[in-house]
Write a structure and sequence with these properties.
- It is a single chain.
- The protein is α/β, with parallel strands linked by helices.
- The chain folds into two domains: 159 residues, Rossmann fold (3-Layer(aba) Sandwich), CATH 3.40.50.1980; 134 residues, Rossmann fold (3-Layer(aba) Sandwich).
- It is 33% helix and 15% strand.
- Helix 6 packs parallel to helix 10.
- The longest helix has 24 residues.
- The chain is globular and about 60 Å long.
- InterPro entries: ABC_transptr_periplasmic_BD, Bact_iron-sidero_bind.
- It is found in: Cell envelope.
- Belongs to the bacterial solute-binding protein 8 family.
- Pfam families: Peripla_BP_2 (PF01497).
Length: 342
């Protein structure tokens, strides 16, 4: 039986907040008009007046009004765009041009602030005059511990983070635990910044349908799935319980391979031991080695899933209802067409 995530409870809360805002402000409830900022269009749940947000680290950012000009880590920028927001800039491991997840999204007018992890053009950032910077923070263990002495995700070091904070306040969303919880936190943050409620709800409806489809496909399939990244040093198999998206797919019935090597998030195999990696379907990171590279590895070239052609791109789909609906639909299709080979 499914447990409601947001639905009527969110609607009741939004209605209550909206009514209070209307009574206090005496407004007619119309949404803000587009002005090239990060504001959403249509009916919005962003409250007028002061804005505050407590992030994953326990820090609370308080501003006199809802942030309009927002710079966002690429992982979360995708979600904001899906929800109808318009970031003024983005940064992260990949540029928008190289990140598959941005394909089909309207990125016109969004500044690219760097070309890789930790690369942020501070002068360009300052010129954007952001009201807020949004990034993520990863736990350091399976207990969900957050090390606040380390920089947020996407920052080269603590010094760079402080330089960014001198330009605009930074909030961090935890990228760990249950996938559906992270999705909800990002949706809540997006709505607080002006994402139209109707847009979020439509995406959630798509998510529900894709979830049903994935559950049916997983139940009908007997294949196992391994998620991995590879480079010259070896193969890194994702521990499904430590990755929010894989944790969520597991809860929907997908059978993921748990790596034998111990360690948080990754089970690391040297190329000498890569032949131990099993699984009928490979979800291969869009970064690092691709199929042609794996085929050149003597200890991995005879991998059953690789030889069967059952390898698909693991794009690390953004944790929003729309992005997840798209990827879950694809995954359901792959499960249905794949054969048990390991």
């Amino acid at each position: 039986m499914k447990i409601p995530r947001r639905g009527s409870l969110r609607a009741a809360l939004v209605t209550s907040v909206a009514l209070s805002a209307l009574l206090l402000a005496g407004s007619n409830g119309s949404g803000r008009s587009g002005d090239g900022s990060a504001a959403g269009s249509g009916s919005s749940t962003a409250a007028k007046g002061p804005w505050s947000y407590e992030d994953a680290t326990g820090k609370t950012v308080k501003l006199d009004s809802t942030p309009k000009r927002v710079v966002v880590l690429n992982d979360i920028a995708i979600s904001f765009i899906e929800y109808g927001l318009r970031p003024v800039g983005t940064f992260g491991q990949l540029t928008m041009a190289k990140d598959q997840r941005f394909e089909g999204l309207d990125t016109k007018g969004i500044a690219q602030l760097g070309t890789g992890y930790g690369d942020i053009d501070l002068e360009q950032l300052a010129a954007l005059k952001p009201d807020l910077v949004v990034t993520s923070v990863y736990p350091t263990d399976d207990k969900g511990t957050l090390d606040t002495t380390q920089p947020g995700y996407g920052f080269k070091d603590k010094e760079q983070q402080q330089q960014v904070e001198a330009i605009a306040p930074v909030v961090q969303v935890e990228w760990g635990g249950k996938g559906e919880d992270v999705i909800e936190k990002i949706a809540d943050l997006a709505e607080s910044l002006g994402a139209p409620e109707s847009t979020v709800e439509a995406a959630e409806d798509r998510f529900d349908k894709a979830e049903d489809e994935l559950e049916k496909a997983a139940k009908a399939s007997d294949v196992s799935v391994v998620s991995m990244y590879a480079d010259g040093d070896g193969a890194y198999v994702t521990r499904p319980s430590d990755e929010p998206t894989l944790q969520m797919y597991s809860s929907f019935g997908v059978d993921f391979v748990t790596p034998k090597p111990k360690g948080f998030y990754w089970g690391i195999y040297s190329w000498e031991n890569a032949g131990q990696i099993s699984g009928d379907v490979i979800l291969l990171s869009q970064q690092g080695y691709q199929v042609s590279d794996l085929e050149k590895q003597p200890t991995f070239a005879d991998n059953a899933a690789l030889q069967a052609g059952q390898v698909h791109s693991w794009t690390f789909p953004a944790l929003d209802y729309a992005s997840q609906a798209d990827y879950m639909t694809k995954l359901a299709g792959w499960l249905g067409e794949s054969k048990k080979v390991s």
